[in-house]
Design brief:
elongated, two-stranded antiparallel sheet, 5 helices, Arc Repressor Mutant, subunit A, about 130 residues, mainly alpha, single chain
């Protein structure tokens, strides 16, 4: 990404220098700044929702659930790519299948996760719109 940025920047600067026309260069830099602002705003929104969810769940989740939520939050606004499966929950926590199922159902009932699919295809996603 940085290599592409530098290449594009140098090309724009070279054109501006040779043609004494900086409009393209200014547009490029303005678009870069706008994209950075959008990215930052999305992350700030995500972090605020994360804090609200943790505040709402304080004292209501067990250490296994907390560990899994923390892992999903570390992945960013989308959580785990493809969602959290029961298998992944078991792998992260070491919990037996029945415990994992109860923990996941509890997180859904508390509004922390959204459930999609059935049986082996069930996946869980962060529910940041609930907060």
């Amino acid at each position: 990404m940085l290599e592409n940025f530098c290449s594009t920047t140098y090309s724009a600067l070279e054109r501006a220098n040779k043609q004494n026309e900086i409009t393209a260069c200014l547009i490029y830099f303005a678009e870069t700044i706008i994209n950075a602002q959008k990215y930052t705003a999305a992350w700030i929104d995500f972090l605020i929702k994360k804090a609200r969810l943790y505040d709402r769940l304080r004292g209501q989740i067990n250490p296994r659930q907390d560990k899994v939520l923390a892992g999903m939050f570390r992945e960013g606004p989308d959580g785990f790519t493809g969602g959290l499966s029961a298998e992944k929950y078991i792998g992260i926590t070491g919990a037996p299948r029945a415990t994992a199922t109860r923990d996941l159902q509890d997180l859904v009932s508390k509004g922390a996760l959204l459930r999609h699919g059935e049986r082996k295809h069930t996946r869980y996603f962060l529910n940041l719109e609930f907060v």
